[in-house]
Design a protein that fits this description.
The protein contains 5 helices and no strands. It is mainly alpha-helical. It has a domain of 56 residues. InterPro entries: DUF6922 (IPR053830).
């Protein structure tokens, strides 16, 4: 587990396998961090991201995520009293018709 500092939550590198973890600006790229940890991080990482950013900021930003796994989206909806329609990734997914259903 990484140590907490004033500008970085205590998260592991688990969700950040594809980027240079040490170069992430955790304030500027808050949505990126929230999305990656929600989809691919550990439970402890998720809790620490909530603690670092706060519940209100998390709720305001996570709805703008480009992609959330279905089970993650469902969990966040229940845990934070949100609706699927609140999420950009959900409304965008619903607007994309399947080619075989045309």
């Amino acid at each position: 587990m990484e140590s907490t500092s004033a500008n970085r939550p205590a998260v592991s590198k688990t969700a950040f396998w594809d980027v240079d973890f040490d170069q992430i600006d955790f304030e500027e790229k808050d949505l990126f961090v929230m999305e990656k940890v929600s989809n691919y991080g550990t439970w402890e990482d998720f809790i620490n991201v909530i603690r670092f950013y706060g519940i209100n900021r998390f709720k305001e930003r996570i709805v703008l995520a480009a992609y959330l796994k279905k089970d993650v989206l469902n969990f966040i909806c229940v845990a934070f009293d949100l609706q699927e329609n609140d999420f950009k990734c959900y409304t965008r997914r619903q607007s994309q018709g399947q080619p075989w259903n045309s």
